[in-house]
Amino acid sequence: MFDMKMIIFDIDGTLLLAGGVGVDAFNQAFNELFHVPEVWDHYDPHGKTDQEIIQDLSRRALGRQTTPEEMRRLSERYTELFASGIDRAERFRLMPGAFQLLQTLHGRQDLLGLATGNFELTAQQKLRRAGLSHFFRFGGFGSDAYERLALTRLALERGLACAPQGVRAGEVVLIGDARQDIECGKALGLRTAAVATGSLGVDELKVLNPDLVLETLEDLSTILEFIDNPSLKQPSNR
């Protein structure tokens, strides 16, 4: 009987970096709708959902949260601007080892999904540009929920719904680069792997007590050993 594994990935800082196209799109959307230029200046979005980002930027720009109608308009305009800019982003890049890892897991017929703060449409644009779309079968997105935990729970539920009978949440692996990725994975009883290709280094990630800490996704043998052995906390060759 084939022993399928289920792995959930974050996108930004874990699989790829979009090269600033999101920053430009948020700046332009706020400028068009509220006449506030450069609203992103010195803002740290790490690990936040797109809905959280909009509310943070709104508080900075307007001194208040957006109304539901303003959220709708900002989300739609941001998504349009992102789609028009993603193919021109010169600094867009894949994280080291990301494509090979996904290709290997996909080739083994493992079940791959996403838990990302991106709106679903912008997530799809990033994956399309990176040539990664075909690897993923399910996901939870920033358009599904305001809070990261809620969208990660949705990703897990959607993954389990299309997984073979017998796959348990405690065997599912979540791979991410941010504090929120690890905290949400642990809160849901998932096995967590933290990769230091985002804004946090190895030592900072270790403080979060994930089951595995990696410098990059290039250490394929270590990652596969971890995925294939649910009882393993830190692989023997680390």
UniProtKB/TrEMBL annotation:
PANTHER family: PHOSPHOGLYCOLATE PHOSPHATASE
UniProt xrefs under Pfam families: HAD_2 (PF13419)
Record field: transmembrane: none
Entry GO MF terms: phosphoglycolate phosphatase activity
Gene3D superfamilies registered for this protein in UniProt: HAD superfamily/HAD-like, Putative phosphatase, domain 2
Biological process per Gene Ontology, one example term: DNA repair
GO cellular component, one term: cytosol
UniProt protein name: Haloacid dehalogenase
Source organism, top-level taxon: Bacteria
InterPro entries: HAD-like_hydrolase_sf, HAD-like_sf, HAD_2, HAD_sf, PGP-like_dom2
